[in-house]
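The instructor's notes for this session suggest beginning with a concrete chain rather than abstract definitions. Hand out the sequence below and ask the class to guess, before any prediction is shown, which regions might be ordered.
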Amino acid sequence: MTNSDIADLLKLYADLSELHGGNPFKIKSFASASFRIDKMPEPLYGKSLQELEGMEGVGKSIAQKLHEIFTTESFKELSELLEATPEGVRDIMRIKGIGPKKVAVIWKEMGVESIGELLYACKENRLAQFKGFGLKTQEAVIKQIEFMFASANKFHYAKAYPIAQALVKKLETLSLAKQVSLCGEIRRKCEILHQIDLLIATENQSDFSSELVSETGIFTGDGHFTFDGFSVQLHYCTPSEFAWKLFELSSVQTHTEKVLALLGSNQNTFNSEEEIYTKAGLPFIVSELREDLGEIEKAQTGKLPKLIEFTDLTGPLHNHSTWSDGLHTVETMAKFCQEKGYQYLGMADHSKSAFYANGLSEERVELQQQEIAKLNQKLAGKFKIFAGIECDILYDGNLDYSQVILKSFDYVVASVHSILKMTEEKAMSRLIAAIENPYTTILGHPTGRLLLMREGYPIDHLKIIDACAANGVIMELNANPYRLDMDWRYIDYALNKGVMISINPDAHEVEGFNDMFYGVEVARKGGLTKEMCFNAQSLEFIEAHFAKKKA
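After discussion, reveal the predicted structure:
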């Protein structure tokens, strides 16, 4: 159980307690503990009661609850509140923008106990009639519910991938499984998945199913089962069919049809996917590109890109330290990156308007830059720390500091963090104004989306890319698995316009650097090459670009 899992339970207790009109001081205590524990770098799970009570910011009462969580994965008071709260009401609490007090009104005054009932009430304009809501809140609730319904039974690639890899290894141990591979959406590296698809080559499907049950306890009548909370679908074939079936299940239908047309009568048994493409007169097309978005035409004309590899990355440029809302110091993060073989680290802590994230005032900007300068002297040319900033794009499109302060940074990542509810017209004017600022180096997470949680503000992607091209601005592909923003579907257009892409982890602790793996996975889907990935270039290239931008 991670610190985040523990923090979620404490926060759930605080929210349910508020819903039921609990003691406000106790509610605040649990909410504060949840926030602190989520930020703690040291794992709490498994610590003794005495160790927990001695920890700063925990306290005796919370320590007892934590110790109970370690034993039962819950605690008595939380269990009692869960039992007293209908499941549908708990679902309503997941709707963004309405806190426990408003949920209490929906439940106890309106008599609504499910998301479906709430949507119906909104459509009848009943929610807006209650004190504290109004038409705008009602419209926002409708949008949130519709988005939740659209996102049902979907999950993030990054969450499913390690589970899927573990499942492959488990199935490979079975004697009747001749070959096992991921296929479907997960092999095409789609950012959102409906299920984990696996292809099993076996001589006898019935005998394999029996072995699967006896050796792993997994029962699958129709090939479908749940593994660690994820929906899994098994597909079967004989060993001789494996290469073709793997190709077919790892491509969209129209991609398969085009390859079939090129194969003509040359459709015998294949030994590998590579052989399929060779006989179709094409170079090999990796599974992540098989979306029928021009990849076959590029292959036919010799324009298929050589995709970026994770090992091509030379450093991360959007990261946060203890100067704002990160968990580790600049020096700790730099040492970690150096040990990973990177050439540089870009620090881009939050700017002053991000008060909720301890954003840097002008005075603190200067202090941080002094610290980074001293660290660079200490590193003596072996590694470089860039003193950047993630600068808020204000509502009028201006950046968060004066031109004098902006010029003091090595580079500026410009991002929207506040007032995300905008029309496309407003979002476009705001972003383009920021892009046209001469100190904007990188446009951060361009749509502000959170996959399966928030759609992001509406933009005309092509016009944003055009603006970046005209102003020499790099576009970020934010590698946080919940963002993966920019959308990979627009990478090809960006490359054709000469806009470089920077794959950044938005790391708030050293473990966050690992998210660059998922950024590379989705960048490959979009056809990104090493040459057009900004942070796959050498330290000298990065330094020269930053210097030119500031000149």
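Then share the key points. Residues 310-550 form a domain with the TIM Barrel fold (CATH 3.20.20.140). The radius of gyration is 26 Å.
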